[in-house]
Design brief:
Strand content: over 45%
Shape: elongated
Order of helices and strands: EEHEEEHEHEEEEEE
Structural class: mainly beta
Helix content: under 10%
Number of strands: 12
Distance between the termini: 42 Å
Length: 168
């Protein structure tokens, strides 16, 4: 089984075992289709979980797992990573990647100058933003006019930085 992170569990919500799921690139329907997950705690402990319910709540989801019936049980999961078997994930479609596929990729400009590696992807109202850490941190908008090529085999993302972005 090849596990990949599909989200991060946030705070418990209410008293019936719901918990927030943040930084997830799957839809509610896709989460339901996957169904079985592995929770990994901040200290590396793992636990298998079966999804019981998922619903959207602003920019995140509220989820509940089988056997997690109250707030205390949900609190015990807070701060953990939600992992899924890569083979159970649906194909994201042509030209679309999951966030986990971008993590750690090297980012270069059109001349081949290395800018750093992708350490996070921020979700904004307009478009995702790559957090690239190298000599300094860059916030690069993930839009077609900036991201020229993503080569997963080589582990490289080629970008054309907007004028002035490096001066921020």
């Amino acid at each position: 089984m090849s596990l990949v992170q599909v989200g991060r569990l946030g705070r418990a919500h209410g008293v019936r075992g719901e918990i927030g799921l943040d930084r997830v690139s799957l839809t509610a329907e896709e989460l339901s289709a996957v169904g079985d997950f592995v929770w990994e705690g901040p200290r590396g402990a793992r636990r298998e979980l079966r999804l019981a319910a998922v619903r959207p709540a602003d920019a995140r989801f509220l989820i509940r797992f089988e056997g997690v019936e109250d707030r205390d049980q949900a609190v015990a999961l807070a701060g953990g990573a939600l992992l899924a078997d890569r083979s159970r994930l649906p194909d994201p479609g042509p030209g679309v990647l999951y966030t986990f596929q971008l993590m750690g990729l090297k980012v270069v400009d059109g001349t081949g100058r290395e800018l750093g590696v992708i350490e996070d992807v921020l979700r904004t109202g307009a478009n995702p933003v790559y957090v690239v850490r190298g000599e300094r941190e860059l916030l690069i908008p993930a839009i077609g006019s900036v991201v020229r090529q993503v080569d997963l085999e080589q582990g490289v993302v080629t970008v054309d930085l907007p004028p002035g972005l490096e001066d921020l």
